[in-house]
Amino acid sequence: MFDPATLTLYMAAALALNLTPGPDMLFCFANGVSRGPRAGLAAALGIGGGAAVHTLAAALGLAGLFAASPTAFEILRWGGAAYLLWLAVKALRAAAGGVGGGLGAAGPLPSRSAGRIFLDGMVTNVLNPKVALFFIAFLPQFVDPAHSAVLQILVLGTLGNISGTTINAVVGMSSGGVGRILSRRPIVARLLNGFTGIVFLGLAARLVLADGRPK
């Protein structure tokens, strides 16, 4: 189904893209450094779950709706930004000591299960319409028209997703190990929470301000 040269080129391109720091990697890093290795891994798996949804949507042609409909694009964009803003507010409140008592408290982020962090990652990825547009622009370049486009997009998307999830998991878990050591000091814990809030706030602003809407 795939020419070896084409598949090799695709995997090299996917690896290069996945190694380039971006919003997904930053999301995993921020969760890992503020909540530990398990949270970093859960965030990476959640991002991977969102990418799987985008792969399926691209294969079925659903992602084309966002390329053709400015309204659908805007709904997704603002929904994703609102969710990221909510996460940012929670982290910044923790940094200010708003969780667990008083401005003098160290303000650790409230306990959050791996399942909830997975959901955070998945929702933020699914609600980013630029990811959908990327999938429908990138994957078809490696599709052989002589074979099933749906099956090829599913396979290509899955292979790229495995690569991306692995890299994000390494980043999230590595940052989690560092964060766990640093967070033993209350002032450092507060700074890490503030960093996480600023990251989420920046991701929300990036989603709102960057011009990536369908033309």
Automatic annotation (TrEMBL):
This is LysE family translocator. The chain crosses the membrane at residues 6-29, 41-68, 80-105, 117-143, 149-171, 191-209. It holds the Pfam family LysE. It is found in: Cell membrane. It comes from the Bacteria. It is a multi-pass membrane protein. One of its GO terms (molecular function) is amino acid transmembrane transporter activity. GO terms for cellular component: plasma membrane. InterPro entries: LeuE-type. The keyword DNA-binding does not apply. Keywords: Cell membrane, Membrane, Transmembrane, Transmembrane helix.
